[in-house]
């Protein structure tokens, strides 16, 4: 038996999540095949072929996969599913969109946001916004799971393996791509950054996020936000860290003007070092912070930026 | 247009849960329960479509214990026209929930099935996608904007790098994200009126479904506690600690 990983693509080619999912899959000690489906994606397939542990890349290059919409992707994966014991993808917006559809078509359960693999059929995943961890044994023949990428190391590189073309066209016509508005950013991607600086309601306005930006640029970090800051319109919603936004686990997480609601903690409490800067000494964020500073952020952040 | 809104009874999102001492589950006895917040957003969106004249009937459906009636009444107080409770005491895996919903959909034939994107207890984010798969419908998950035009629904979706817009043929499955709308509060007169709206109770056994055992929860544990941190007195001290103690900058 082997493992099938569904690769995600971005503008540069293969998405950064894929190396993490391959890293997780290597713990299962089986052959690893990566499916690269899209339109004009030979380059991404070449990148997948160089991830350590991958034994074969399947390349489905057709216009019907150009935006990796769930309906055609799921049909393609189900057609290829015979012979695989595990089907994995990253627990990203795309993985979460597609994999449950695959699982239902195969009549098996899906395991979401897996943070540890205990054996080939037993996985650990957070529930209740990360306030509990469930160890779940799958009773299905095929295990379908999304992988929380912040919990696994990326695969290293290797000499490229074989890329095999898959000649399959799944046009469902159920849904159609209309457009996309992507946020332009020069900073590292939130999910992969070594340092994340997040702002909350305490910033008071979108303009004041410039303070966070200056600090992020100094540290080469990414910017995050609490739900309150997103709802108030200070920043775009794809910067939200939390149960309903992105889950991050950087080496350093600096929470500025964030009280620390459980929904926010669910998205960042696995960070290696947490720093909280808040003027309310009773803010719950101080309970998870390694270093807490009770101060007005408008004084502390410029000073911190200057001293670093 | 007929809209079906599946809702779930979950622990109130502001309650901090504890793991049971025998590590079998999360302690839920005597905790405040509520409609899952994402389901509430789905109900609100259905009501707004009805107010725009684009929907004529909203059916709220829930699969759960008898007390889940409370959440169906809340949905009806918010504007759903009637409720269906599929009584079942054990927690079902999303694949089984999707099979039950498929049976309801075949009976009610809605044009749009509006879900919340995930429930805040299991955090699975699967049921909408699975229901779409089993019924052969198209899907638009994580919706932050919904426009119905003719036999299509145009949905703005929250994706990792921004917003993506899809057009899906009706009947379709859409799942609501946080920013789709701001749910209204139920007014007292509407809470009273909701008590007289029809609520049908059925049981999973009525549908002759094969709900296989797909998974077994071996244990539920509390996550590792973070070791206690320290408060620093100044920005200078913070920088010093980050450089020399934590060595992260």
UniProtKB/TrEMBL annotation, chain A:
<feature type="binding site">
    <location>
        <begin position="240"/>
        <end position="244"/>
    </location>
    <ligand>
        <name>FAD</name>
    </ligand>
</feature>
<feature type="binding site">
    <location>
        <begin position="226"/>
        <end position="227"/>
    </location>
    <ligand>
        <name>FAD</name>
    </ligand>
</feature>
<dbReference type="InterPro" id="IPR029035">
    <property type="entry name" value="DHS-like_NAD/FAD-binding_dom"/>
</dbReference>
<keyword id="KW-0274">FAD</keyword>
<comment type="function">
    <text>The electron transfer flavoprotein serves as a specific electron acceptor for other dehydrogenases. It transfers the electrons to the main respiratory chain via ETF-ubiquinone oxidoreductase (ETF dehydrogenase).</text>
</comment>
<dbReference type="GO" id="GO:0009055">
    <property type="term" value="F:electron transfer activity"/>
</dbReference>
<dbReference type="Pfam" id="PF00766">
    <property type="entry name" value="ETF_alpha"/>
</dbReference>
<feature type="binding site">
    <location>
        <position position="278"/>
    </location>
    <ligand>
        <name>FAD</name>
    </ligand>
</feature>
<comment type="similarity">
    <text>Belongs to the ETF alpha-subunit/FixB family.</text>
</comment>
<keyword id="KW-0249">Electron transport</keyword>
<dbReference type="InterPro" id="IPR014730">
    <property type="entry name" value="ETF_a/b_N"/>
</dbReference>
<dbReference type="InterPro" id="IPR018206">
    <property type="entry name" value="ETF_asu_C_CS"/>
</dbReference>
<protein>
    <recommendedName>
        <fullName>Electron transfer flavoprotein subunit alpha</fullName>
    </recommendedName>
</protein>
<dbReference type="InterPro" id="IPR001308">
    <property type="entry name" value="ETF_a/FixB"/>
</dbReference>
<dbReference type="GO" id="GO:0033539">
    <property type="term" value="P:fatty acid beta-oxidation using acyl-CoA dehydrogenase"/>
</dbReference>
<feature type="domain" description="Electron transfer flavoprotein alpha/beta-subunit N-terminal">
    <location>
        <begin position="3"/>
        <end position="181"/>
    </location>
</feature>
<dbReference type="GO" id="GO:0050660">
    <property type="term" value="F:flavin adenine dinucleotide binding"/>
</dbReference>
<dbReference type="Pfam" id="PF01012">
    <property type="entry name" value="ETF"/>
</dbReference>
<keyword id="KW-0285">Flavoprotein</keyword>
<feature type="binding site">
    <location>
        <begin position="257"/>
        <end position="264"/>
    </location>
    <ligand>
        <name>FAD</name>
    </ligand>
</feature>
<dbReference type="InterPro" id="IPR014729">
    <property type="entry name" value="Rossmann-like_a/b/a_fold"/>
</dbReference>
<dbReference type="InterPro" id="IPR014731">
    <property type="entry name" value="ETF_asu_C"/>
</dbReference>
Automatic annotation (TrEMBL), chain B:
<feature type="domain" description="Electron transfer flavoprotein alpha/beta-subunit N-terminal">
    <location>
        <begin position="23"/>
        <end position="211"/>
    </location>
</feature>
<keyword id="KW-0249">Electron transport</keyword>
<dbReference type="InterPro" id="IPR000049">
    <property type="entry name" value="ET-Flavoprotein_bsu_CS"/>
</dbReference>
<dbReference type="InterPro" id="IPR014730">
    <property type="entry name" value="ETF_a/b_N"/>
</dbReference>
<comment type="function">
    <text>The electron transfer flavoprotein serves as a specific electron acceptor for other dehydrogenases. It transfers the electrons to the main respiratory chain via ETF-ubiquinone oxidoreductase (ETF dehydrogenase).</text>
</comment>
<dbReference type="InterPro" id="IPR012255">
    <property type="entry name" value="ETF_b"/>
</dbReference>
<dbReference type="InterPro" id="IPR033948">
    <property type="entry name" value="ETF_beta_N"/>
</dbReference>
<protein>
    <recommendedName>
        <fullName>Electron transfer flavoprotein subunit beta</fullName>
    </recommendedName>
</protein>
<comment type="subunit">
    <text>Heterodimer of an alpha and a beta subunit.</text>
</comment>
<dbReference type="Pfam" id="PF01012">
    <property type="entry name" value="ETF"/>
</dbReference>
<dbReference type="GO" id="GO:0046395">
    <property type="term" value="P:carboxylic acid catabolic process"/>
</dbReference>
<dbReference type="GO" id="GO:0009055">
    <property type="term" value="F:electron transfer activity"/>
</dbReference>
<dbReference type="InterPro" id="IPR014729">
    <property type="entry name" value="Rossmann-like_a/b/a_fold"/>
</dbReference>
<comment type="similarity">
    <text>Belongs to the ETF beta-subunit/FixA family.</text>
</comment>
<keyword id="KW-0813">Transport</keyword>
């Amino acid at each position: 038996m082997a493992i099938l990983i569904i690769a995600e693509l971005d503008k540069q080619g293969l998405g950064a999540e894929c190396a993490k999912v391959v890293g997780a899959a290597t713990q299962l000690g089986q052959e690893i095949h990566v499916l690269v489906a899209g339109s004009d994606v030979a380059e991404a397939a070449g990148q997948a072929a160089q991830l350590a542990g991958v034994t074969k890349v399947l390349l489905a290059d057709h216009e019907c996969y150009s935006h990796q919409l769930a309906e055609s992707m799921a049909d393609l994966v189900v057609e290829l599913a015979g012979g695989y014991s595990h089907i994995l993808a990253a627990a990203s917006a795309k993985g979460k969109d597609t994999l449950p559809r695959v699982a239902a078509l195969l009549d098996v359960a899906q395991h979401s946001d897996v943070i540890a693999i205990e054996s080939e059929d037993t996985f650990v995943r957070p529930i209740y916004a990360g306030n509990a961890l469930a160890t779940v044994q799958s009773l299905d023949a095929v295990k379908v799971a999304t992988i929380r990428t912040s919990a696994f190391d990326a695969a290293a590189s290797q000499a490229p393996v074989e890329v095999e073309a898959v000649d399959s066209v799944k046009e469902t016509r159920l849904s159609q791509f209309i457009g996309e508005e992507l946020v332009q950013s020069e900073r590292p991607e939130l999910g992969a950054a070594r340092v994340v600086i997040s702002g909350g309601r305490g910033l008071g306005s979108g303009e004041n996020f410039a303070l966070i930006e200056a600090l992020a640029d100094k540290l080469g970090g990414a910017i995050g936000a609490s739900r309150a800051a997103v709802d108030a319109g200070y920043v775009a919603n794809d910067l939200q860290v939390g149960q309903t936004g992105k889950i991050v686990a950087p080496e350093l997480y600096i929470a500025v003007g964030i009280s620390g609601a459980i929904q926010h903690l669910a998205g960042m409490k696995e960070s290696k070092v947490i720093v909280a800067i808040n003027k309310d000494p009773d803010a719950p964020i101080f309970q998870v912070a390694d270093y807490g500073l009770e101060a007005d952020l408008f004084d502390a952040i410029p000073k911190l930026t200057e001293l670093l | 247009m007929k809209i079906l809104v599946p809702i779930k009874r979950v622990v109130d999102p502001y309650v901090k849960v504890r793991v049971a001492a025998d590590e079998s589950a999360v302690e839920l006895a005597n905790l405040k329960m509520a409609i899952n917040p994402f389901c509430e957003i789905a109900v609100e969106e259905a009501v707004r479509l009805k107010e725009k004249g684009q929907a004529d009937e909203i059916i709220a459906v829930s699969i759960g214990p008898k007390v889940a009636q409370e959440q169906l009444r809340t949905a009806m107080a918010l504007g759903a026209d009637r409720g269906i409770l599929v009584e079942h005491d054990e927690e079902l895996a999303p694949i089984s929930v999707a099979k039950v919903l498929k049976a309801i959909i075949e009976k009610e034939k809605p044009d749009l099935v509006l879900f919340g994107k995930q429930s805040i207890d299991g955090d699975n984010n699967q049921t909408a996608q699975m229901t779409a798969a089993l019924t052969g419908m198209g899907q638009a998950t994580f919706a932050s904007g919904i426009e119905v035009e003719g036999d299509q629904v145009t949905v703005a979706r929250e994706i990792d790098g921004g917003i993506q817009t899809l057009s899906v043929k009706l009947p379709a499955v859409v799942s609501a994200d946080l920013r789709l709308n701001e749910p209204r509060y139920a007014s007292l007169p509407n809470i009273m009126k909701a008590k007289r709206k029809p609520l049908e109770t059925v049981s999973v056994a009525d549908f002759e479904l094969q709900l296989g055992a797909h998974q077994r929860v071996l244990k539920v544990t509390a996550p590792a506690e973070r070791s206690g941190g320290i408060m620093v007195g100044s920005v200078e001290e913070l920088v010093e600690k980050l450089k020399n103690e934590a060595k992260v900058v």
